[in-house]
């Protein structure tokens, strides 16, 4: 199919370089892929880490980014569940494939159909793009690493089963809180006080300020008062400052525990024998856990967004479209609080 808009891309010319917008060929979808004309691109911390540390960059010039929303313009020969004109969101797989056609920072992106969800009309492109990594990472943390029953499963956790989400104001933390609630878990969380009301509205039973010296004791007391045993944790921050507190918190409950950490377990942080911990591997959503991707992106996410079961967080639009991505990376590198940075095309 011929496309009327050229494909402009924000190219990273070299390691630690600045993005430059140039035209590249409009990609074509393979049999199990779709081509999307992007309308919003959401930024993730991994994007600036790829610039600074060369993570998951196979060659230069590179195209970064994984979270998009837009309109399908072409579908691969084996795709039956999407058609041109569909509004969609999806997680772009270039960190797995090494193919810049599968990256987000451009006008057109080739997505795996399995990693794409229809976007309800009531949800804007910018809000849709802002939910993508939150949902994919939260799903991997809960249903891959922690191996908890998915929300559609007939198996439900017992009503007194709890989970700790450390850093619930982060994009991934907020997604994890909502998915954990949908999976029937009681959620206990940490966040800065200005985000407590929102984190509670997403489904947390109790939230404490992670900067409080009594955060761990206060949260454990809240769980015990609610009659909940917290034996699972997702640490959305996963630094040498947060993981010891996560471990301390879990130590207040009997029995074996499981922790999903979003960054590599930091050197020097003790891991108790009764704690099984594993690093969430984001790329598994495009490969080993394509089954989970199909379940969440193809089967569940659209309905969750339609019904308000998954609510996008605060979005800050960075002006300039593709030209704004460099500013976005610079802002994100300094850190954000409870908001997702997005550019609109
Ligand atoms: N392994 C994977 O597959 C995977 C996937 C996605 C992301 N990640 C990584 O996971 C991390 C989070 O990503 P993200 O996109 O969710 O980040 P984000 O939204 O940019 O995180 C910002 C939030 O972090 C919170 N925060 C900072 N320090 C904290 C602390 N000590 N305790 C609790 N909360 C703290 C802040 O909370 P307040 O506003 O409440 O202060 C802030 O709102 C990044 O390092 C990212 O690279 C890994």
TrEMBL record:
Presence of the UniProt keyword Oxidoreductase in the record: yes
Protein name: Chaperonin 10-like protein
Gene3D superfamilies for this protein: Medium-chain alcohol dehydrogenases, catalytic domain, NAD(P)-binding Rossmann-like Domain
UniProt-listed InterPro entries: ADH-like_C, ADH-like_N, ER, GroES-like_sf, NAD(P)-bd_dom_sf, Trans-enoyl_RdTase-like
UniProt similarity note: Belongs to the zinc-containing alcohol dehydrogenase family.
UniProt keyword annotation of Amino-acid biosynthesis present: no
Keyword tags: Oxidoreductase
GO molecular function terms attached to this record: oxidoreductase activity, acting on NAD(P)H
Ranges of residues in domain Enoyl reductase (ER): 14-343
